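yo

u said u wanted the structure for the complex thing, so here. seqs first:
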Amino acid sequence: MSVPVETQLAVERLLARYVASIDEDRLEEWPGYFTEVCCYQIISSENYEQRLPLGVFFADSRGMLRDRVAALRQANVYEPQRYRHLVSSTLITGESGGLVTAQSHYMVVRIMHDGATALFSTGRYLDRVDLRGPEPLFAEKLVIFDSRRIDTLLAIPL
Amino acid sequence: MSVPVETQLAVERLLARYVASIDEDRLEEWPGYFTEVCCYQIISSENYEQRLPLGVFFADSRGMLRDRVAALRQANVYEPQRYRHLVSSTLITGESGGLVTAQSHYMVVRIMHDGATALFSTGRYLDRVDLRGPEPLFAEKLVIFDSRRIDTLLAIPL
Amino acid sequence: MSVPVETQLAVERLLARYVASIDEDRLEEWPGYFTEVCCYQIISSENYEQRLPLGVFFADSRGMLRDRVAALRQANVYEPQRYRHLVSSTLITGESGGLVTAQSHYMVVRIMHDGATALFSTGRYLDRVDLRGPEPLFAEKLVIFDSRRIDTLLAIPL
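structre next:
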């Protein structure tokens, strides 16, 4: 499969903006990286591979993502913490009619207020990116995490 | 040194496909990323720098890599585990006659069946990539790991 | 914002060369990635966000960076150790007159002589890259680290 350079970089740039908004606590920008009607799901690799639809989070519209951010801002009970995403190995796997499928590997480190740092989550993104508008947007984003040991109270988007 | 965009992305794409096959347990695809006659070696940075040829794994043909996969599949005695590769900083260091040399930094996280997650290995890839065929292939891949503390029973390719 | 492919890859390539020099202990090359007059600062995210100028390291010329390397080489009292940088999500945020601003996420793993491996630092680079010369150079590099728990005796550049 031959991938146009511009497509590769457009997807990588969307991912870079996405993780920057999260890690710099500009969560209000997060829903804006998705199309109005979208699919965002966080699911374990075990459930994903066994085709069990049970994820730990699901949203199918930008509005639901906005609600999620509002809830996170109100539920300000968590210990302050930071996250640092690293994303690599973005692989375009298909393109059709301006919609691109891509997968990437991610790693998220969590930094607690006292400075304690730990690997929080690793996994991969399965993305469907809509390149037809003025800015690339996620039409679908599946976050498939590797470890079943994940906080059920996911404090932030992945 | 000026590097054509297409060369840079071709090497990055090969690396992305390579790590995706490993992390998604499609090990049977792994030998297919190498030329028939090839060099694949896993070696500690200490031995590499002291020019001691002693690595923890060596193969010089696609057939040997296939044998390795077969052995891994049969020796299914290990605790089930996952790996997650992150690769970054891919730097093309030379090109001659369709063969490109490149180095990259890698990090591998291991996720045990119970969800325990740990840094498994960090290091760099020194690759020689053959761009002359229909798909880019590794003619040579040196995996130079940073830590001498590595499982001698390497369960998976790095 | 539309980013030329060549600009994106030039910045990524500079970052790749930069971290390779550090991780392969070719520290003498490190000052050469900066312009003669430059700004290099390592600062915590807390201080950066509160606009406190207090960083853990600051230099405003290539000469100061050279002095730093000389000091590190003389103060060879540290336990031998290695570092492994991973850099991702490089995002060009502006360009003006051949000067490009970019940010990236980084993660550094430290490997002690006995092989013990640990996450050393995560954070982001805020870079101003001068593309006007024969090679891209950092006119400014801010290393904003996430965790307040960082060795005050930073053994190596970040």
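Chain A touches chain C through 25 residues (CB under 8 Å). The radius of gyration of chain A is 15 Å.
cya
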